[in-house]
Amino acid sequence: MRGRDDRRALTRSTPPWLTVFALAFTGLCSAYMFTLVVPIQAELPHLLDADRADTAWVVTITLLVSACATPISGRLGDMYGKRRIVLVLIVMLILGSAVAALSATIGGVILGRALQGATMGVLPLGIAIMRDVLPVARLGTAVAFMSATMGVGGALGMPVSALIVEHLDWHMLFWAAALLGVIGFVLVLLFVPPSTLRTPARFDFVGALGLAAGLVGVLLAISRGADWGWTSPATLGSGLGGIAVLLLWGWYQLRAKEPLLDLRVAARPAVLYTNLAGIGMGFALFGTNVTLPQMLELPGDSEAGFGLSMFVTSLVVMPSGLMMMVISPLSGWFERRLGARLMLACGTLAVGAAYGLLLVWNDEVWHVFVANTMVGIGIGLSFAAMPMLIMRSVPAHETGASNGINALFRSLGTASAAAVMAAVLAAMTVDHDGIPVPSSTAFEVCFWLGAGAALGAALLTAFIPRHPHADRPSIPDRD
User: Fold this and answer.
1) C-alpha angle 148-175-46 in degrees, rounded to nearest 5
2) Which of 115, 216, 247, 445 is the most buried (most CB within 10 A)?
């Protein structure tokens, strides 16, 4: 009875659609942080008067902080209130944006980007809040919409960033991010009910530090391996050291009285295979983000390029994000009738088919447009299905942390795609006016890798149980 009273208290004064809108807006803002600096990435050494190896940290630090902050913020939300932690993360976004906007040196921009990266934790927290406050009939559509923001924010943000860079000073990118953060803070403060579903516990600081150290080691090896050399002492030391720390962390978590994450829950087949599929779909999604813009922007007389401007390129790839937004309400309909498991399978196969299309037809802009649109459909279905599968398999007090782990696995996929695709495109080049540019074969290899990741995720869906159950399931099964 206590749980029902809490739910009534949560939904009494705020229309559900306003809560969903506020949370989805924060999700869009956090996802936008990953493509915020894409238009100026190549110019950062000149703008910041720094080496290219140093300016790479402007992108890398956001990835590292987001990966560490996502599961930790999920646990904090379960303990101290999800809305409260969402507001804290948005404040970090605003503060980081202001720091970067006021900086003219590499150190200040890296610090600001690190604070921006922490905001990715609002995605799993937003999904967990929706489970707390929404009726079951509306939950599938709302979760689909929130999940889609991970792709929509980046896709819609690229043309905005391109326009800002073309017409204004580059610092305005960060002032625009700060303004979005302020709007998001006000929306959450006004329209997201305070969290009353909490898990009283002592925060596991040792577990948080261990998880962060292990993730930083692994992600450093993945994201910087191409620059450092895949067999260099720095790459091997970071990667193997990170794995060793994570293994020790897992041993500690299984023995801690109040662990940061309950690994026994995470090891349930429905949760485990969904998370593993998340790696594949994160890889497939970011694979197109890395390869297609480069293909479209390469000189038209090169072996594989189309010679489009950055703004036109962003318009060609933007429909992927728009399709994710369109698919969101349809995902709720599919989930209610077919079940999340089948919806995940359809999404993974759609992305695999998109890569197959690129392998056969990639010599016209409209080929890229159609394939990227198919990726948007597949990612929209997949990212909507995964949180639903997770929430059916974990108790209510583990929702925030468990969704954080799922977002972390997707981040591992995106980080791997960024490193692997970049390494392939850098290694397989042809000469164009004295400058090495990626060859058509390099793009084909990348497309094969993306197809393999998507089909691997599709295979993993076969191992997800048809009727997963949580300790106290609050979402009925439909599979």
Assistant:
1) 100
2) 115
Number of domains in the chain: 3
| pLDDT tens digits along 434-478 | 878 889 999 999 999 999 999 999 999 999 987 655 444 444 444
- Band of residue 198 on the pLDDT scale cut at 50, 70, 90: low
Sign (positive or negative) of CA dihedral 110, 115, 119, 121 = positive
| Beta partners for residue 435, in sequence order | 432
Q: How far is residue 264's CA from residue 243's CA, in Å, rounded to a whole number?
A: 19
Tracing tokens 């940290």 back to the chain, one arrives at 57
What pairs with residue 436 in β-bridges? 431
We report the CATH number of the domain holding residue 411 as: 1.20.1250.20
Of the chain, the percentage scoring pLDDT greater than 70 comes to 91
CA distances from 68 to 17, 62, 227, 238 (A): 30, 10, 22, 16
Quote the mean pLDDT of the chain: 83
Last residue within a domain, chosen from 203, 230, 250: 203
Closest CA to 410 of 56, 82, 31: 31
Q: Is 104 exposed, middle or buried (0-12, 13-18, 19+ CB in 10 A)?
A: exposed
H or E element that contains 78: helix 57-80
The span from the first CA to the last CA of the chain, in angstroms, equals 28
- The rounded distance, in Å, linking the Cα atoms of 443 and 457 is 21
- What value, to the nearest 5°, has the Cα angle with vertex 86 and ends 381 and 138? 40
